[in-house]
Design brief:
Strand content: under 5%
Radius of gyration: 15 Å
C-alpha cells in the first residue's frame, strides 16, 4: 500500500477524525430510531450519511477518506435503488 494513501498534506497519518455535523446527524437519527422504532426518520439518516459521504469524496484529507466516502455513497445508492 502506498503510504501517501493514508497521510494528509502535512504528512500526518489520518484514519479517524471527530465526526462532523453530517456524521453526527446520522448517528443521532440512528440512535433515535433505536429508541423510537416506529419513527419515520430513516430518510433523514440516509440524507445525513449521503451528505457525509459526498463531503468526504470531494474534500477528504487523504485518499483513504475519499475512497471511503465513495464506497459509502455507492452502497447507499445500491440500497436505495435496488
Amino acid at each position: 500500500m502506498n503510504i501517501n494513501f493514508i497521510r494528509d498534506k502535512s504528512g500526518k497519518i489520518v484514519l479517524l477524525q471527530p465526526p462532523n455535523l453530517a456524521l453526527s446527524g446520522w448517528i443521532v437519527t440512528v440512535l433515535f430510531q433505536r429508541v423510537v422504532p416506529s419513527s419515520k426518520i430513516a430518510w433523514l439518516g440516509t440524507a445525513f450519511l449521503f451528505t457525509w459521504a459526498f463531503m468526504e469524496m470531494c474534500s477528504g484529507v487523504n485518499y483513504f477518506r475519499r475512497v471511503l466516502g465513495l464506497i459509502v455513497m455507492v452502497m447507499i445508492l445500491i440500497v436505495q435503488f435496488r
